[in-house]
Hints:
Elements: E1 8-13, H1 18-29, E2 32-40, H2 47-58, E3 63-68, H3 106-121, E4 125-127, H4 143-156, H5 158-161, E5 168-170, H6 178-187, H7 212-224
Parallel strand pairs: 1-2, 1-4, 2-3, 4-5
Helix pairs in contact: 1-6, 6-7
Amino acid sequence: MDQGTADRPAVVLLSGGLDSATALAVSISEGFRPYALSFDYGQRHQVELDAARRVALSSNAAHHVVMKIDLRQFGGSALTSDLAVPHHDRAEEIGPGIPVTYVPARNTIFLSFALAWAETLGAGDIFIGVNALDYSGYPDCRPEFVEAFEAMANLATKAAVEGRQRVRVHAPLSHLTKAGIIRLGLELGVDYGLTHSCYDPGADGRPCGTCDSCLLRQKGFREAGAEDPAQRC
Length: 233
């Protein structure tokens, strides 16, 4: 634990998936006191919010807020409209382009809410579990996006402009494969049985096993040489 950060508050974006659960664990391992922030944004896979609550509770987060916004008003994504979620037999079939499951500006919106909460908490640190390897190709998961948002954040807040608080956006998983993320999480004691990854779960909440997120999760556990405790995907 870094004694310079011990017990400092940090806002952690928590979707309920394995990446965000790992980012939460990283924040704790680095001595931050996590304030978890999740979003009910009209996503078809709202079962992930139950997972987020489980993860936040098991991690003893200082506080967990589920913010309700309605991105279905805009649509434009298979996660926030009636567009079909793509399904494949194998992860290798996932194409190189930006898929229809991309939600326009989602991480920009989420980080903006996190920035607002961080300023009210007197926190200069925000954690997000994005990664740019073994991912679905979303533009707002890339390191250059995170760096650009951090630069903007330090122009946007009263605390930063007055020189009292510099904002840092942590993306500790950015250059890890899914297998690397899982290995890191297991080292940190993450219970992946609490998490949920599926974009297109059934009415009973069970994962489809064939959407991009399910396939990447399967691939990650397989390459990590570990068994998925949730047996969800």
